[in-house]
From TrEMBL:
Belongs to the serpin family. Ov-serpin subfamily. This is Serpin family B member 8. Gene3D superfamilies: Alpha-1-antitrypsin, domain 1, Antithrombin, subunit I, domain 2. Pfam families: Serpin. One of its GO terms (cellular component) is extracellular space. PANTHER family: SERINE PROTEASE INHIBITOR, SERPIN, SERPIN B8. Keywords: Protease inhibitor, Serine protease inhibitor. InterPro entries: Serpin_dom, Serpin_fam, Serpin_sf, Serpin_sf_1, Serpin_sf_2. SMART domains: SERPIN.
Length: 242
């Protein structure tokens, strides 16, 4: 599990750097685990040079049992009886005229709890797109209503791999709405007043000298999960942190 965690962390950081370089003036919001899960399912069916290149990009050990590692990870993420709701769901949508290997479908189901559903992209492209969006909306409690925009799939589409993550939890130290106030928020280009939550309590905090950044941990109920916030010092170049 440690090897898988290190690989996922390395992949996430590399992807963040690439996205940051492409959209330097924009906010970046993405789920590294979602992307890893989807690509590792592709890796499950890859062989030869393709498999070697994918293992390098995903930062996984090609000689290790990465799929059993993900199986264990997904089982822990989707555990029940917690004070929070965290679910991650995978599904494959394949063109019905394609003959997908039964061993591939069985492995996706076994390791990633991902069923392969056959659709007719060739005949009913728009209906397939809406069907996939409906599945994602269901798994995310309606928070994501359109993961596939118009034109993202077509008659030549053979396989769509989808990952959906849903999280709902309460802070261990609750924020009172009446204390929300307007405070100064700085970006690399401007300063503006925005509404910010406020709470006076004891939290874990550290300072990383190398990147001139404060690190704050905000735990959720029972402290099983936490949000980690990084706050660079004033006048710190964000590209250095990224």
């Amino acid at each position: 599990m440690d090897e898988l965690r290190e690989g996922n962390d390395s992949f996430a950081i590399k992807l963040l750097k690439m996205l940051g370089e492409a959209e330097k003036s924009q906010n970046v919001f993405f789920s590294p685990l979602s992307i890893s899960c989807s690509l590792v399912m592709v890796y499950l069916g890859a062989r030869g040079d393709t498999a070697a290149q994918m293992s390098q990009v995903l930062c996984v050990n090609k000689d290790g049992d990465v799929h059993r590692g993900f199986q264990s990870l997904l089982s822990k993420i989707n555990k029940t009886g917690t004070q929070y709701l965290l679910r991650i769901a995978n599904r494959l949508f394949g063109e019905e005229t394609c003959d997908f290997l039964s061993s591939f479908k069985e492995s996706c189901q076994k390791f990633y709890q991902a069923e392969l559903e056959e659709l007719s992209f060739a005949k009913n492209t728009e209906e397939c797109r809406k069907h996939i969006n409906d599945w994602v909306a269901e798994k995310t409690e309606g928070k994501i209503s359109e993961v596939l925009g118009s034109g993202t799939v077509g008659p030549l589409t053979k396989l769509v791999l989808v990952n959906a993550v849903y999280f709902k939890g309460k802070w261990n130290e609750q924020f009172d709405r009446k204390h929300t106030r307007g405070m100064l928020f700085k970006t690399s280009k401007e300063e503006k007043t925005v509404q910010m939550m406020f709470r006076s309590a004891k939290f874990k905090i550290r300072y990383i000298e190398e990147v001139h950044t404060q690190v704050l941990e905000l735990p959720y109920t029972n402290e099983e999960l936490s949000m980690i916030i990084l706050l660079p010092d004033d006048n710190t170049d964000l590209t250095v942190n990224e």
